Amino acid sequence: MTTAIYPGSFDPVTVGHLDIIKRAAKLFDHVIVAVLVNMEKKPWFTIEERTAFLKQATAEIGGVEIASFDGLLVDFAARCGAQAIVKGLRAVSDFEYEFQMALTNRKLDDSLETVFLTSSAENMYLSSSIVKQVGLFGGDISPFVPACIKDDILTRCRNLPKRVIDSH
Ligand code: PNS
User: Fold this and answer.
1) Block mean pLDDT (10 aa), the chain, length 168
2) What residues contact 70, with CB distance under 8 A and at least 6 apart?
3) How far is CA 152 from CA 2, 53, 146, in A?
């Protein structure tokens, strides 16, 4: 059985992430979407919210599991028995950072391959930061996030703690 990890902060999940998950699920028997718990960049959404959004958004996709992890990705991948890491690439600007991470991960564990899936053309500009900015200022986020979680994300954006808005 082939297992791949699709790691990220998913703060929150976008239709771009969902597109990569669906395509990865066609390539691998088992795709574990792994949400990083402790991020350097402080997340807007809690780990419980980020995983719950992903569970709702992927409920209909076979072979997909949502998990969270802390520490090194390669250690989590080894615990899961994964053979590959899946990453989405939107533009040239993603490449340098992703290449650095892929080479680091290979140095740490050369049995784990990183597989890059190119973003679909319509999602090339999209990021979780865009969703947060538009949601924070009351804009329409429906083109950017899975329909089933749009209202929950908007409610959460409206009720964000003051510290988050101040630091924006
Ligand atoms: O969605 P993001 O924020 O681009 O995801 C980044 C992520 C979670 C893939 C990356 O930060 C990560 O793998 N963190 C775990 C720590 C780790 O293994 N670091 C070494 C690889 S550079």
Assistant:
1) 97 97 98 91 91 97 98 98 97 90 98 97 95 92 96 85 56
2) 36, 37, 38
3) 33, 8, 11
pTM: 0.94
Q: In a mutational test of the pocket of ligand 1, which residue from 9, 68, 94, 115 has the highest number of ligand atoms less than 8 Å from its CB?
A: 9
Of the residues 9, 17, 50, 156, only one is catalytic, namely 17
Distances in Å between the alpha carbon of 140 and those of 13, 57, 100, 122, 132?
16, 18, 35, 17, 11
Please tell me the predicted confidence (pLDDT) of residue 91: 84
Which residue's alpha carbon is nearest to atom 20 within ligand 1?
A: 72
Per-residue model confidence (pLDDT) at position 157? 82
Q: Is residue 9 among the annotated active site residues?
A: no
Task: Tell me if 119 sits within 8 A of 138, measured CB to CB.
Answer: no
- How far is 89 from 162, CA to CA, in rounded Å? 33
Identify whether the C-beta of residue 76 lies closer than 8 Å to the C-beta of residue 109. no
Helix (H) / strand (E) element for 7: namely strand 3-8
* One CATH from 3.40.50.880, 3.20.20.70, 3.90.190.20, 3.40.50.620 for 3-124: 3.40.50.620
